[in-house]
């Protein structure tokens, strides 16, 4: 998927998470939602590979479940940055549980979109 499609999918994921998870609140515009998705995408692009490499023993030990903790931490950072005190994108959370459930919903939406939307990087070239 291209970067813009990923941002759109993340925006839809954040919107769905704010509708399903009671502790996540968003009362902004579509542009603010896209801004939140952009912040989340940049955080994932910069920090997720580093976090996965540094926590590889824990990921192996927990059979991959530690990735949920990584996703929680990255989404917590995105909520903190997009909050009213920093970038003022009107995204707030009531607690760590709401952020964890929100990260799960966003991951599920991203997974579903990845199954539906073809990815050009995964094509096998046949000559």
Quick summary:
The chain is mostly helical.
Characterization of this structure:
- The protein has 127 residues and is mainly alpha-helical.
- It has one domain.
- The chain is 69% helix and 5% strand.
- It is built from five helices and two strands, in the order αβαααβα.
- It has a two-stranded antiparallel ribbon with strand order 1-2.
- The radius of gyration is 15 Å and the shape is globular.
Provide the descriptors you would attach to this structure in a database record.
127 residues, mainly alpha, two-stranded antiparallel sheet, 5 helices, 2 strands
The number of helices is 5
Q: What order do the SSEs take from the amino end to the carboxyl end, as H and E?
A: HEHHHEH
Unreliable spans: none
Mean pLDDT: 88
Helix content: 55-70%
**What is the terminal-to-terminal distance?**
23 Å
Tally of structural domains: 1
Give the overall shape: globular
Q: What portion of the residues fall into strands of 2 or more residues?
A: under 5%
Structural class based on helices, strands and sheet pairing: mainly alpha
Largest sheet: 2 strands, antiparallel
Number of E-type strands: 2
Give the spatial strand order of the biggest sheet: 1-2
């Amino acid at each position: 998927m291209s970067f813009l499609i990923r941002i759109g999918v993340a925006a839809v994921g954040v919107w769905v998470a704010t509708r399903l998870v009671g502790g996540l609140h968003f009362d902004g515009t579509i542009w603010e939602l896209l801004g939140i998705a952009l912040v989340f995408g940049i955080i994932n692009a910069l920090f997720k590979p580093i976090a996965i490499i540094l926590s590889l023993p824990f990921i192996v030990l927990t059979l991959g479940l530690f990735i949920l903790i990584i996703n929680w931490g990255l989404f917590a950072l995105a909520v903190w940055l997009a909050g009213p005190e920093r970038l003022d994108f009107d995204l707030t959370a009531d607690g760590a549980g709401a952020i964890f459930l929100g990260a799960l919903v966003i991951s599920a939406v991203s997974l579903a979109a990845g199954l539906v939307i073809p990815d050009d990087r995964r094509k096998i070239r046949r000559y």
